[in-house]
Here is the input.
Amino acid sequence: MPIDYSKWGKIEVSDDEDDTHPNIDTPSLFRWRHQARVERMAEQEKQKKDLENEKKDINIHITELKAKLEDTTLDDTQKDEYQKKLDAFLKQLNDFKDKEKKFEEMLAKQPWNVDTISTEKFSKSRINKKNKDSYKPKTPEDAYENMQSVLAKYKKEIETYKKCNGISEVSNCLRTYPEIVCEEVANYLTLEALNHAIMEEEPDLVRIATNVQYMQYIIQLAGELKIPPNTYVMVNRFFDKVMQTNEAFKRDHAIQLDEFLNKLRHRGKVKRDEALQEIEAEEKAERIKNSPKGIDPIEVLESLPEEMRICFEERDIEKLQRVATTMDPEVFKHHFQRCKDSGLWVTNEDDSNEGDEGAESGMKEE
Here is the structure.
C-alpha cells in the first residue's frame, strides 16, 4: 500500500524565507505572520470552547426534561409541553453535531504549524538520586582512626609486604594477602618511603616506593573497573593481564617510578633541612638563654676579628693577651665586652679587671 504524503503538503512556518516581499521588511513580515497565526489559533480555541459550552447546556436541558417526563404525577398537558421542549433540544443537538463536524473539518484543513504538527502523548522525567551511603565524608580525625585500625588489623601482612623486593615477591605477597590493597596501606607505605628518604636510606626508599606504585596501580585499575581493589580477582587481573602482557605499561611504570622517587627525595631533603633548622634554632635559643646578656656566643665568635677569633678557637689566653697589646684598644675593648656579655669569656664576680688580666677568668668552651 503506497504511503500518503499529502498531509505533509502544507505546513505553515512564520519565518519561511522562500515567501517574502521585496518592499516589506523581512523580520517584520515574519513577526506579523507569527502574530496573525497566534491570534487565529486563539480565536479557534475560543470557538471550540463556545461549542463545548453550548453542547453542555443542551445536554443539561435534555437530562432535566427527561427527568421531568418520568414524573407520574404530571397530567397530559404538562407531558406534552415537556415533550415538545425535549424534541426541540434534541433537534438542536442534532444540528449542533453538524456544526461540530463542520468545525472539525475546518480545523483539519488548517495548515500545520509548530504548535499543531505533533502532540505529546506522554511525558516522563527521571532523576537519578545519589545513594546516600555511596559517599561518606570523613574528617581528618576519622581518616586517621580508620588508617590506624587498618594498620593494626593487618600489621603482620603489611610488614611482610614492606620487605618484598622485586615483582615476583610483590605478586606472591599480594596474591596471598589481597586484603591489604587499599588507600590506607598505600598512604602508610608512602610515609615509610618518605622517612627513608629523610634518612637518605636509598635501598629501602627504592624498595618501598616501588611497592607503593604497584599497589596504587591496582587501586587505580579497580576504580576504573568499578570493583573493590582488595580482592584476589583484582590482584590476579593486574599481575596476569597488565604486568605480563602490556609492554607500554611497563615502560610507563619505570618513568612514573623515577618521578615518584625524585619527589620523595626532594621532599626528604626539605624535611631534613627543616629538622636541622629546627635543631639549630633550639640550640641557639638555649645558648642565648644561658648567656649573661642574652647574646648568642656563636654569632659573637663569628663576628670577632680573625686574630681574636683564633685565640678563642684555640683557647689560648696568652695569645689573646698579646693581641690586646697590638690591636686598637677601643676595638679590642668593644669585642671583648661582647665576649663577656655572650659568655665566651667567663669572669669571676670579684674580678675588677676587664677580663684579660683576671687570674680566675677564662674562655668558655663552646
Confidence is low (pLDDT under 50) at residues 131-135, 350-360. The CA atoms of residues 199 and 268 lie 8 Å apart.
